[in-house]
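Aggregate trends can hide what the representation actually does to any particular protein. The sequence in question and its structure tokens are set out directly beneath this paragraph.
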Amino acid sequence: MSEEIIENAPSNAEEISFLLTDDRIKEIVAAVHAQDSDTVHGFLDDLSNGDAAELLSKITAEDRKELLSMYSEAINPVVFAELGTDLRRATLSDMAPSEVAAIISALESDDALELIIDLAEDQQHAIMKKLSAKIRRAVEEGLSFPEDSAGRLMQREVVAVPEFWTAGKAIDYLRSAAEDLPEDFFDIFVIDPAYHLTGQIPLNRLVRADRATKLSEVKLDETHPIPATMDQEEVAHIIRRDDTASAPVIDENGRLIGVITIDDIIDVIDEEAQEDILKMAGVDTGDLYRAVWSTTGTRFRWLFVNLLTAILASITISFFDATIEQIVALAVLMPIVASMGGNAGTQTLTVAVRALATRELSDTNTWRVIWKEAFVGTINGLAFAVITAIVTYLWFQSAMLGMIIGIAMVLNLFVAGFFGASIPILINRLGGDPAVSSTVFLTTITDVVGFFAFLGLAALLLF
């Protein structure tokens, strides 16, 4: 048997690669252009939801519009929920309200809300009119919650049972109501007659219980319900910390109104991480699909701020123009100090921003982390001071110049470590987003300190 399996196994890596290759994408587009319906349907049937979403994201806007205009019925509605926000908005904006309404009606409530939430207000109203009364109420309720809150993230389809039931009765109910249950769920929730949450039971715990056991004896000792108004980042932190597959969502009266599942949390963590990384560079998540002028305008603002900080560093250099004129070597060497400070600071900054995002930094360890990073910067500063001093001596035959750049290196890497950790913490305390503006402040400080320390020491010791 094992020999037969080995014999029939793919012979090379290419045969076991992902189905959606660049060549396959070109074949699908060619079939769409040729209006070869059978071939296109055959391709689409073979694609997973993730592959279909990747296909829509990689082809041109014109090809995407042509594909959807002729073959949208062959694409699973879940595919549209898999698309990035800006691409999804652009794609759905090209479709008729009735088509979008049909897609929304086929999705679970959390995915349905995600599709409509980013569309223009007039388009939302047009789509709402095409929805059934039940789905429209669910969408309107979701839109009433704050942006990026648990209420907008949650799935309204929940499995809730009375607390006086037995495990056997609950299992029988799940089997008999299979068609009305959510497509995927991991827990059932125990409620009282007023729909107040009283407990949570993981499915594996339920199926292991004796049929006669009361649900009150099977439910978890602790349940951590999520208020509907809680920010999605805080929700992700709680579910990750408690290591649960799903969490119940309650309204202000403690009644169960929905559930947030682990797949939603993975999306939130991924979205927030991407957002923070892109913000540190002054880039938006939708830049890949936005128009040229829109992308240019967004990046211009960030670059303009960087220009102002660069001018500040240049002003610092101008204070020592006479010194630089006398020793040309200073102009050659001074970018080294500033560059090393900027890179070391970015390392520390990245660690600090991540620690803030994952709630690893608090009042109890803030100063310990700041001084630890400053100490790390100092040690690296000493190490690179020796290296750069030796290189400078061999290059310019000046021991004093080597000593000056070494001292400046130590000072700037200490500053990089200290401010790389403290700037994002301070911005966070002031209610700002450390991922957005920390880099600008840090690079300004390391440039100014680096140039001032190096040129100032040179002016003091060489003349």
In short: The domain at 292-462 is CATH 1.10.357.20 (Tetracycline Repressor; domain 2). The chain has three domains: 2-150, 160-261, 292-462. The radius of gyration is 30 Å. The chain has 23 helices and six strands.
